[in-house]
Amino acid sequence: MQKSTAMHMIKDIMSKYLSLLVVKSVILPTAVIFILALLITQQNDFAFLISLATAFVSWNNSQIISNLSFKRSEVSKNKDAVFQDIEKLFDETERLFSERSLNEDQLETKLSGRLSILELRCQHVKKRTGITLIDTNGIASLRSQFPELLDHNDYKTTLMQMRFRYLECIEANYSSWQQNH
Predict the structure, then answer these.
(1) How far apart are CA 47 and CA 29, in angstroms?
(2) Are 114 and 85 in contact (CB under 8 A)?
(3) How many Å apart are CA 110 and CA 103, to the nearest integer?
(4) Could you report the per-residue pLDDT of 47-65, keeping only the tens digit for each?
(5) What distance in Å separates the CA atoms of residue 130 and residue 177, rounded to the nearest whole number?
(6) Which of 83-87, 109-113, 164-168 shows the lowest mean pLDDT across its residues?
(7) How far apart are CA 177 and CA 181, in angstroms?
(8) Cβ atoms within 10 A of the Cβ of 62, count?
(9) Strands (E), the chain
(10) How many CB atoms lie under 10 A from the CB of residue 55?
(11) What is the mean pLDDT of the chain?
(12) Most buried in the list 73, 108, 110, 118, measured by CB within 10 Å?
């Protein structure tokens, strides 16, 4: 019984909000435009058509701007998440490399989860928004580059260069996407 009461309360709130939204975004601007058009043209029918057309075009433009803003904020949020994933991946890799007893199998086991999550997140972003932050070849090259560094003494410098290269790639892809959208 309580569930249905809660549902009715939610429906009432939603209908009040939607009706207020319709009044603010459609009816009120239409009335103002109608009054202005009536004062200018002195013809009721023509003023009504002008007000409806103007209100529709304005509402349509605001919807387009709202959708673009939402998409941009979604891409920005996902770009930041991929940035953090890259940072965590390289931080963990550097920590693992500092343990000199690490072998290739242990490294692959410990990093494969992070790389898989990164790959899934990039694919998700591409599917939802159309932007390729890091392509799958870039992630695959990470899988092969990390084990190669086990034999290097100067792994910190190489890891830092790799980190910045990937972060620059993400930022360049994001900037390019922003300019085109």
Answers:
(1) 13
(2) yes
(3) 11
(4) 777 777 777 777 777 888 8
(5) 9
(6) 109-113
(7) 6
(8) 12
(9) none
(10) 20
(11) 80
(12) 118
